[in-house]
């Protein structure tokens, strides 16, 4: 029932996620943040079993930090994605981790990138990707409206419209202004006006 | 749905005159949903040996990483590249190691062996090798591929004709399989060069 999707634009990568934590008919929480900040230029949006999601994304975050402490330089996005994939693949035939991920990052040499990592550890680099029931709406919307090198404003508009039909989606997202002067995380949430849309959306983007 | 058809795939390799071609589709799906349309299934081991891995994408990626590792070790020890027949035996052994918990992949191996003679083989997920002199197929579209290749194949084709035939066979077959398609990748390997081409087919 969750909705996590991401896309790559002009000098930025963006991940949007719904903020619901539900268990059948019970809403545990409606402002759950499912996007883990790995470091200043990497995000890991995850969806799936709640315990696995929280625990595994934190595990990846700590290991990314450990690499930086040990080696003095941060991991590249591709390396972080392959590390995540490796952990999932190793666990797959022992105790599988039922959580799907979108890893977005910005590297100086490569630019923005987005990696799709399945719960069975399928890794693929993509320009636009989505998970959960919300993906049935968001993938089609992105197929129709996504262009190469979109601006941040266009991408946030797309993120807003891509999730408006999903029961756990959101119907509006904040207007954010972005400047390209430095690396920045932007994050906004708002409540939709429609009473059925009570959930926030969190949008994180990494700007070059 | 079978675990081999979870991601959807189509692979074919054909032998020509002192050359071979190996082709795959480009779709990566999760059952009915298409996730990507530029997924690579054919990997280069070295200039004269290529392996295509159909079946579950995660096991294909894991298996490829293990094979590259083993081949690099072999290169360090033997100071030369592996012959395709040797490589096929290596793949077979690695797959059989997991006899009671296998990798859900069906490899297609194609290479130029001694005297640049083309070599192709396929195997099931447990490593049972099947050598062929004409063509081998694998993937969720394998039944259609068998039919298309059987009718289009001729022995001793020149590279350009081989490329044309393998492309037509692949595109015709994936059109009959909903889990594979979205174009194709073809590697045409001769003793002197490797040509990689992308096919545009029905994008659905």
TrEMBL record, chain A:
Assembly notes: The 26S proteasome consists of a 20S proteasome core and two 19S regulatory subunits. The 20S proteasome core is composed of 28 subunits that are arranged in four stacked rings, resulting in a barrel-shaped structure. The two end rings are each formed by seven alpha subunits, and the two central rings are each formed by seven beta subunits. The catalytic chamber with the active sites is on the inside of the barrel. Component of the proteasome complex.
InterPro entries in the record: Ntn_hydrolases_N, Proteasome_alpha, Proteasome_beta2, Proteasome_bsu_CS, Proteasome_sua/b, Proteasome_suB-type
CDD domains the record matches: proteasome_beta_type_2 (cd03758)
Function description: Component of the proteasome, a multicatalytic proteinase complex which is characterized by its ability to cleave peptides with Arg, Phe, Tyr, Leu, and Glu adjacent to the leaving group at neutral or slightly basic pH. The proteasome has an ATP-dependent proteolytic activity.
Source species of the chain: Platanthera guangdongensis
Cell compartment(s), UniProt: Cytoplasm; Nucleus
Name the record gives this protein: Proteasome subunit beta
A single Gene Ontology CC term: proteasome complex
Domain of life per record: Eukaryota
Sorted UniProt keywords: Cytoplasm, Nucleus, Proteasome
Family as reported in the entry's similarity comment: Belongs to the peptidase T1B family.
Sequence ranges of Low complexity compositional bias: 171-182
Automatic annotation (TrEMBL), chain B:
Chief localisation class: cytoplasm
CDD domains for this protein: proteasome_beta_type_3 (cd03759)
Family matches, as InterPro entries: Ntn_hydrolases_N (IPR029055), Proteasome_beta_3 (IPR033811), Proteasome_bsu_CS (IPR016050), Proteasome_sua/b (IPR001353), Proteasome_suB-type (IPR023333)
Coiled coil keyword on record: no
Subcellular location: Cytoplasm; Nucleus
Keywords: Cytoplasm, Nucleus, Proteasome
GO cellular component, one term: proteasome complex
Pfam families in the cross-refs: Proteasome (PF00227)
Gene3D superfamilies to which the protein is assigned, alphabetical: Glutamine Phosphoribosylpyrophosphate, subunit 1, domain 1
Entry function: Component of the proteasome, a multicatalytic proteinase complex which is characterized by its ability to cleave peptides with Arg, Phe, Tyr, Leu, and Glu adjacent to the leaving group at neutral or slightly basic pH. The proteasome has an ATP-dependent proteolytic activity.
Protein family (similarity comment): Belongs to the peptidase T1B family.
Subunit and partners: Component of the proteasome complex.
Official protein name in the record: Proteasome subunit beta
Organism: Platanthera guangdongensis
Gene name of this polypeptide: PBC1
């Amino acid at each position: 029932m969750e909705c996590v999707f991401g896309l790559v634009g002009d000098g930025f990568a963006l991940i949007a996620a719904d903020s619901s934590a539900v268990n059948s008919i019970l809403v545990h929480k409606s402002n759950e943040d499912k996007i883990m900040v790995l470091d200043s230029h990497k995000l890991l949006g995850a969806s799936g079993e709640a315990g696995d999601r929280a625990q595994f994304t934190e595990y990846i975050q700590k290991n990314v930090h450990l690499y930086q402490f040990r080696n003095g330089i941060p991991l590249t996005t591709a390396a972080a994605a392959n590390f995540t994939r490796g952990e999932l693949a190793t666990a797959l035939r022992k105790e599988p981790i039922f959580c799907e991920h979108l890893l977005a990052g910005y590297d100086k040499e490569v630019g923005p990138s987005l990696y799709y990592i399945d719960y069975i550890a399928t890794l693929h680099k993509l320009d636009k990707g989505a998970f959960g029931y919300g993906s049935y709406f968001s993938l089609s919307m992105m197929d129709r409206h996504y262009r190469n090198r979109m601006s941040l404003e266009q991408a946030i508009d797309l993120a807003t419209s891509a999730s408006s039909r999903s029961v756990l989606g959101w119907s509006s997202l904040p207007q954010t202004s972005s400047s390209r002067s430095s690396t920045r995380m932007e994050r906004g949430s708002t409540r939709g006006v429609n009473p059925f849309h009570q959930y926030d959306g969190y949008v994180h983007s990494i700007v070059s | 749905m079978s675990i081999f058809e979870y991601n959807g795939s189509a692979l074919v390799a054909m032998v020509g005159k002192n050359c071979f071609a190996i082709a795959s589709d480009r779709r990566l799906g999760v059952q009915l949903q298409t996730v990507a349309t530029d997924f690579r299934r054919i990997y280069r081991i070295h200039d004269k040996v290529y392996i295509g891995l159909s079946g579950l994408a995660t096991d294909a990626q894991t298996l490829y990483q293990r094979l590259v590792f083993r081949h690099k070790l072999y290169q360090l020890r033997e100071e030369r590249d592996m012959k395709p027949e040797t490589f096929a035996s290596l793949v077979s052994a690695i797959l059989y190691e997991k006899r009671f918990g296998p990798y859900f992949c069906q490899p297609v191996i194609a290479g130029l062996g001694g005297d640049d003679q083309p070599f192709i083989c396929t195997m099931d997920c447990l490593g049972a090798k099947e050598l062929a002199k004409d063509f081998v197929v694998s993937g969720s579209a394998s039944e259609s591929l068998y039919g298309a290749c059987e009718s289009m194949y001729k022995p001793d084709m020149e590279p350009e004709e081989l490329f044309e035939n393998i492309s037509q066979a692949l595109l015709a077959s994936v059109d009959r399989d909903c889990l594979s398609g979205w174009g194709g990748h073809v590697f045409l390997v001769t003793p002197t060069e490797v040509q990689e081409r992308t096919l545009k087919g029905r994008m659905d």
